[in-house]
Amino acid sequence: MTTQIHFGRPLVGDEERAAVMKVMEGPILVHGPLAGEFEAAFAAFTGAPHAVAVSSCTAGMHLIWFALGLKPGDEVIVPAMTHVATAHTVELTGAKPVFVDAEDKTGNIDIGAIEAAITPRTRGIAVVHYLGVPVDMPKVAAIAKKHNLFLLEDCALAPGARIDGVHAGLHGDCGVFSFYPVKHLTTAEGGMIILKDGELAKKLRLVKAFGVDRTHGERKVPGVYDTVALGFNYRMSEIHAAIGIEQMKKLQGFLDARKANFVALEQALAGGKGYRLLPQPDDGHLQSCHYCAVIVLDDALIARRPDIMAALGERGIGTSVYYPQPVPRMTYYREKYGYEGAKYPNATRISDGGIALPVGPHLNTDDMKTIADNVKTVIKDLIP
Ligand SMILES: Cc1ncc(COP(=O)(O)O)c(C=O)c1O
Questions:
Q1: 154 Cβ below 6 A of ligand 1
Q2: Would you name the residues annotated as active-site residues?
Q3: Every domain of the chain and the residues it spans
Q4: Are β-strands 174-178 and 166-167 bridged in parallel, bridged antiparallel, or unpaired?
């Protein structure tokens, strides 16, 4: 059977297509007004004092660590349960990611284990809001403050996530979002940094564009500028920004659909045997934004995960794994730093025994019932 319930589908429509065509019909593909317009819309949605558009979440995180002057000999705390980009962007500066295990209940970083990983070389803490479930940021922010550390929130999965009513990304020193196709909103490739510090925002704008002292519009004589800092080309084009502006108009609808789907799936999965669903709190303190739903198989069934995912695929249900390995177990990090698996039991269990189920707005609550019925049946057949 071909897949009928896809794990992820970008929802772009006539509005995005028309906006892209409008850009393509004009002469300005980069350095135009749309990147700024998208930044303003994202800042308004999140309540951020500053928003800086970049070419991806990875570019944004690298830009930050680079702009802060992270260097060999420095260390940054990084969750073991995350996308490899969170670690790579530290590693790219020559600094060392020091991995901390996940908490078993949610898969988010084990806050209680952070302080034991801090050394005199630690310069920062990175957290990821895994699956769009907010990390309890006031607790992490208190640790960062106590040890004078920069606090970066990897918000790749967190548009719409809030802690005590304040959007994710505004509890630490900055938050970085991803607009890769299957995320909450997409620009094809793209990212956004939100932050409170105006001086740092200014620096990020400089370093994301070669360290050039004047933007295109500020050059009195065309082509004449100076370079005052080392920098990248991590800009967002007008084409990408045009898609983003249209997606922002739809974002709340997307989030509402994700929430309704997650609630329906949670209810329909209840009572099933052989797995547990990672909870996604949605109360006054932690407001999740439901990127996908992850069930973790009981230990006795973990070896059967490929069979379970294949059987679901045959029944037309797309699944995925978030994330496929604890990052310190990935070959690059294992070979460079060695790997002590015993340090990451929770991230390992979620990586090896987790199955990610879709709740995106391309699906509806009837689809959730279909997913849950099939999950229950396939797993029940395997329980001895
Ligand atoms: C937690 C996390 N961080 C970073 C990234 C990388 O985002 P991008 O592809 O925009 O660089 C991803 C991508 O899925 C992610 O899940």
A1: yes
A2: 183
A3: 14-247, 251-380
A4: unpaired
CA of 379 to the centre of ligand 1 (A): 30
Which 8-state DSSP code applies to residue 103? Answer: P
Tokens at 117, concatenated = 């990983």
89 in helix, strand or coil? helix
Identify the residue whose C-alpha is closest to ligand 1 atom 16.
83
- 14-247 maps to CATH 3.30.720.120: no
Structure tokens at 48: 């951020």
Tokens representing 263 are 């609630």
Q: Is the CB of 126 under 6 A from ligand 1?
A: no
* 3-class state of residue 333 by DSSP: helix
Q: Is 79 in the pocket of ligand 1 (CB under 6 A)?
A: no
User: For the domain bounded by 251-380, which CATH number is listed?
Assistant: 3.90.1150.10
Note the pLDDT tens digit of each residue in 206-248.
999 999 987 777 778 888 888 999 999 999 999 999 999 999 9
Cβ-based neighbour number of residue 38 at 10 Å: 27
Distance CA 241, CA 332 (A): 34
Pocket test for ligand 1, best of 7, 57, 294 (most atoms within 8 A of CB): 57
Gap from CA of 364 to ligand 1 centroid (Å): 25
| Secondary structure of 187-217 as H, E, C letters | CCCCEEEEECCHHHHHHHHHHCECCECCCHH
Per residue in 61-72, pLDDT (tens digit) is 999 999 999 999
Q: Which helix (H) or strand (E) holds 157?
A: none
Question: What are 106-128's pLDDT values in tens digits?
Answer: 999 999 999 999 999 999 999 99
Ligand 1 lined by 356 (C-beta under 6 Å): no
Alpha-carbon gap, residue 364 to 366, rounded angstroms = 5
Ligand 1 and 261: CB distance under 6 A = no
pTM greater than the 0.70 cutoff:
yes
Place of tokens 């084990």: 110
**Ligand 1 within 6 A of CB of 187:** no
What atom in ligand 1 is closest to the CA of residue 58? 11
Which is the closest atom of ligand 1 to the Cα of 190?
A: 10
Cβ atoms within 10 Å of 220's Cβ, excluding its own: 7
